[in-house]
Structures are given as C-alpha cells and as structure tokens.
Amino acid sequence: MAYMVDISKKESVYREAVAEGFIRLRKETVELIKKGAIEKGDVITVSKVAGVLAAKKVSELLPLCHTIPLTYVDIDLSLLDDGIKVTTVVRTNAQTGVEMEALTATSIALLNIWDMVKKYEKDEKGQYPETIITNIRVVHKYKSTT
User: Fold this and answer.
1) Marked catalytic residue, from 74, 76, 82, 115
2) How many Cβ atoms are within 10 Å of 87's Cβ, its own excluded?
3) Which among 23, 65, 118, 133 counts the fewest CB atoms within 10 Å?
4) What confidence tens digit (pLDDT) does each residue in 73-89 have?
C-alpha cells in the first residue's frame, strides 16, 4: 500500500532546503572545464539548467511527492582541484517542504556533469576508475513558524 500524504489542512508557509553533493574528477578534466574546452559545451551553465529543470519535475519523478510551486532555485557549482561541489537552494511558500526538490536538482546537476565530461574521464578500457559522485545530502532546511 502506498499513498500521498494528505496536506489539505496544512497552511502554506515559507520553506527552504539546501542540498549538496560532489563529483570527483581527474585534475585534467577540471582544467578543461575551467578553460571552457569540453566538447559538449559549458559544463557549469548546462548543469545549472539541468538542475533547475529537475527541481521543477520532482512530482513527475517521485510518485508520492506533491506538486508544489517553487519560488526560487539556485544551483552553485564550485570547481575544486579534484572535482566539483554542487550546492542547491530551493524555496517555496507551500504546505510541504522542498528537500526532495533540492536533492533531485543536486543529483541531476551532478549526473549532467558526468555526462558532459565522461569522454575525458574514461581510462583505456572505457571505465571510470576515478569518477565518483558522493555525499548527496540535505545540509539545511528551514520552515517559517510565523
């Protein structure tokens, strides 16, 4: 048995969630991203757009999530020596929280990075020995009490 939780009687309030995750990449790949030399294009911009689109589609992907009006989605990609950290902030005024939207946006941004750089991450056998997505988690959530 599965069902969507009834939130009919809950008041809409301001809610915010912040999620983050990390993709480890070869140093050479990070340098190519910095130089704008990835064949598929601008990894940072495309990954941000992919994450925003993902946040807006959560209720289509996760069957028991409510469709909620998102008022803000921001995705920050920080290039580090050994990969990229993705941090997503999602806000709404709704009857339920936005943790799943923040987590989904972060996850899809990370997957998009992988897709755009996989050519550079493969070894001679076509494997990805160094590439790994880790630490996807909610780092903060807030709900207004007023």
Assistant:
1) 115
2) 18
3) 118
4) 999 999 999 999 999 99
Range of the domain at 41: 13-143
Which residues, in sequence order, are CB contacts of 122 under 8 Å at separation 6+?
A: 128
Pure H helices in the chain: 27-35, 43-56, 58-61, 99-121
Number of structural domains in the chain: 1
| CATH number of the domain where residue 71 is located | 3.30.70.640
- The answer to whether 115 is a known catalytic residue is yes
The verdict on pTM exceeding 0.90 is yes
Amino acid residing at 99: E
Residue 6 in any domain: the answer is: no
Q: Could you report the per-residue pLDDT of 53-70, keeping only the tens digit for each? A: 999 999 999 999 999 999
**From CA 91, how far away is CA 99, in angstroms rounded?**
10
